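Methods — Computational structure assignment.
A single polypeptide chain was analysed. Its primary sequence is given first, followed by the predicted tertiary structure written as structure tokens.
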Amino acid sequence: MRVLVVSAPMLGHVFPMIPLARALQNAGHEVLLATAGDALAARDAGLHIEDIAPTFQFGRIARRTMMRHPLIAKAELAGEGGTRGVRLLFGAVNEEMVDHAVALATRWAPDLVVYEPLAVAGALAAARLGIPAVLHENSLFDGPELVRVTATRLTRALQRHGVETLPPNAATMTIAPPSVVGARSGWPMQYVPYSGDGTLPDWLGGRPEQPRILVSRSTVGGPGGSRLMSAVVAAAPHVDAEFVLVRPDRHVMRQGLLPGNVRTVDWVPLTAALATSTAIVHHGGAGTVLGALAAGVPQLVVSGPGDRTYNARLVAARGAALATAAKDITAATLTRLLTDAALTSAADEVRQEMAAMPSPEDVVPRLVALSHSRSA
């Protein structure tokens, strides 16, 4: 079976899809990943990749889109944009991807397309070829709703490729734990964290004598990263813990000598680092939220632009995290993150819930059956 996997051109979108792509490949199927931009780094996972937006620059698209829609831009920066900003931004992103995606699918002739909610170009390519499209959720948002709002910006692309409307998905794979996002229809699939295949430095590979708190910021930058880390650094001397700043930016490093209980590290596979940590403070990206939940690690999630405030509220409502603004991070907040037994218990409950979901390897035969039912 040939499977075309389509992702928006950003690491946080492609990383959650890599475990299933690998499971398919390990089962003997041909897998081709179609994406662009920073997501091309997924080549390091041993997958074949095709660039379907060679001139993609997310910053250019974001600036142009938000300058035209200042009220939506303001809401997005406050984390209150809902799907309005998604519709505009990723409608434009998919316009850059869709023609190349259709051309690639036509040339490579897959039996099945697996796409994520903000890579609607994959669904359009499947519709153009008349093959099944499977939606692979990769965040806490409802995947079909993201597809619906993004597709409303692709009217011209649909017409260009002779597709009247996107047909229903052959299946939807849901990865978010129901106790966090509520019950969803579709095929449950275990979220297997992937953040690269690198190794940890020796000092980070084992558990320290005192609690360890990871501090991470977004892989795509944006406002708030410096404030988050600066607030933690200011409070750190008053907390009995070791702090590890992952990829601190220049602003944080220019503040002078860091406290004695604060260390820094360049890029590391966050999944491995979580295994030796007691808690994590981070920016609220879906991949980090889900990775910490899968590890059973309590979180302090800083609200911010895009989906970050939404994510923070959901995981805090479940009881597995604290949610706060960066300016409100104090030594007391960080101490509570380490000592609140209810946080630790809720985080472990969600870890067990996620571990009980079917693995990507378990889902592969169901995808094969979808392909066979089409050709029967």
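Note: The chain has a mean pLDDT of 90.
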